[in-house]
Each structure stands twice: as C-alpha cells, then as structure tokens.
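User: I've been trying to design a sequence by hand for this structure and keep getting stuck. Would you show me what you'd pick, starting by listing the structure so we're on the same page?

Assistant: Good idea, let's start from the same input. This is the structure you sent:
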C-alpha cells in the first residue's frame, strides 16, 4: 500500500487548557494511525512552511502580515477564536503547506490525506471560526497557478458551511464548491457555494448518506474535476459539541468510503483534510478523525494504489 499521509510535529501549538480546539489531537491522531496499523512510518510526508506568496494567492497581504507578526487588531483576533502566539502563527502556515503537499501527492498517487486542514471559514481579509488561512483555497490556487490542474471540485462535508471557500471562489469557474451542512448551524450568514445542501437538525446516518448519494456522483460527472479536495469534518457526529446532526462513527466511516469510492470510480484523484471536530472526550474525537484515514487505507488497498 502506498497511501501518502502528511503530518508535521508543528501541527501542535499550545492553547489555553480546555479550549474547544485542542491542538494535541493532531499528535494523538498521528500516534493512533501508527499504533493501530493504519499506516507505517514511511508513508508519512512532512510539509515545509509555505512562502508568503502562496498565502497571498487567496489572502490580502495586509491581513497575512498582520496575523503573522501578531499585530492583528483585537476585534479581528477575537473573530478567529484562537489566542495569537508565534507558535500558532507558524503552525497555521505549516498546515497550509500540508494541504498543498497532500494535493500534490494525490495527483501523483490518486489519493492522499492530511492529518490537519479544513480551515474553510477564513476569508481573504479576515479569519473566523478557528480558521486563520484557508488551506483548501490556497491549495487550489497553487495547483491552478502551476498548471497542474484546470478544474477542482471541493467537497465540504464539515457540519458548518464552507463560507470562506464559497466567497473566495464565487467568481472563479475553475473551482466548484459543494457544501453539505446543517442548516441552522454556524455561520449565521451563509455564503453561496456553487451547490449548497442544507440539512435539518438531527439528521441520522441513512438519510445523510442517501442525500449525499443524490448529489456527489452527478457532480463528479458534470464538473469533471482534475482533483477533489475533500473536507472530512467529523462534527456531523451526534456526540459533537458544535454539530447539531446525529451521525454515528459507522455513519462517518460510511460517508468517507462513499466519497472516496465515488472519486475512484470516476478516476478523480482526491486529497483529504480532517476538518472540524469538537468533543470533551479527546480519545473519541481522535478516533473519529482517524476514520477518513482508515477509509482511505481500505480504498488504497482495493484500488492497489
């Protein structure tokens, strides 16, 4: 099996105890995938910190420089929801590099997974909802600017609408944004994706998977992307603190298998990021984030990638 996985020790940055976005989950996920037999050490690739020019393909220079230097105004910092530190500024840039590397590896191997990423609430000139720089949008712009792809489909199954991504690509026909999210959840003001599927509160596994099946195969046929960027957020889980849907572990795994198998059947490379997930039980949260990597490992074996 040659499934590439992307991880960097700097994915972890210190935050105040009890924060809803515990950074230690990234290291715990890396350890779990190695100890449970999902991945061998040689499958892991380590990203570099990206050049500022990559960030500026999506984000305003003034915003990038203010955030990276710790001079962002307090109101804008509060909107992000994460306390600034040099370690966090470095970490968020490394994670962007990880998603770019994951996308490149997906084009080479057919399938690749980042152990971070999915910061889809970041807009060009501000961050929001624990999202500082939009790694999905930056990866798409980098690959497009390099001529590696002509058309990208972003499949965003985080429970929250990918509003920043939708805004960034609102006038860019090269990137099709598809967001399937809980209708009454954050953000209160939704943006217009190319396709939005708003789900009712409390939706369970079977209804969710049937809804996804009504849209994804046709999208792959209609859009004909050169690459899928898949945000595999686990916050649709019924035990998530911020979710409002009711998927089970089995439902999350079946969802990930459904997405990956649909992409493989359409012969479209897919790069996965882990997206959101919020739970007081850190071990349970890490196990949920591992589901997309386990699904990818199974698909890689099935297709002999």
């Amino acid at each position: 099996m040659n499934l590439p996985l992307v991880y960097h020790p700097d994915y972890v940055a210190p935050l105040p105890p009890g924060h809803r976005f515990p950074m230690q989950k990234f290291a715990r996920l890396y350890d779990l995938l190695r100890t449970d037999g999902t991945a061998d050490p040689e499958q892991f690739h380590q990203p570099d910190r990206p050049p500022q020019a990559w960030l500026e393909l999506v984000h305003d220079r003034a915003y990038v420089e203010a955030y990276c230097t710790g001079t962002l105004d307090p109101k804008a910092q509060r909107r992000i929801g994460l306390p600034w530190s040099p370690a966090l500024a470095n970490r968020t840039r490394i994670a962007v590099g990880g998603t770019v590397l994951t996308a490149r590896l997906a084009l080479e191997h057919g399938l690749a997974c980042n152990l971070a990423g999915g910061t889809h609430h970041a807009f060009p000139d501000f961050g929001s909802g624990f999202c500082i720089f939009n790694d999905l949008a930056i990866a798409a712009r980098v690959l497009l600017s390099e001529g590696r792809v002509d058309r990208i489909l972003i499949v965003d199954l985080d429970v929250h609408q990918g509003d920043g991504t939708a805004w960034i690509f609102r006038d860019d026909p090269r990137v099709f944004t598809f967001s399937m999210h809980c209708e009454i959840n954050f953000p209160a003001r939704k943006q217009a994706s190319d396709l939005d599927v708003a789900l009712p509160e409390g939706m369970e596994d079977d209804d969710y998977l049937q809804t996804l099946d009504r849209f994804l195969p046709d999208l792959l046929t209609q859009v004909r992307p050169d690459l899928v960027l898949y945000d595999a957020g686990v916050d649709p889980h019924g035990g998530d603190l911020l979710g409002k849907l009711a998927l089970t572990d089995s439902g999350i795994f079946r969802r990930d298998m459904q997405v990956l198998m649909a992409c493989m059947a359409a012969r479209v490379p897919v790069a996965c990021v882990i997206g959101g997930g919020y739970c007081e039980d850190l071990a349970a949260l890490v196990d949920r984030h591992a589901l997309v990597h386990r699904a990818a490992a199974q698909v890689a074996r099935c297709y002999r990638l």
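That's my pick for every position. To get oriented when you compare it with your attempt: The chain has one domain: 22-302. Residues 22-302 form a domain with the Arginase; Chain A fold (CATH 3.40.800.20).
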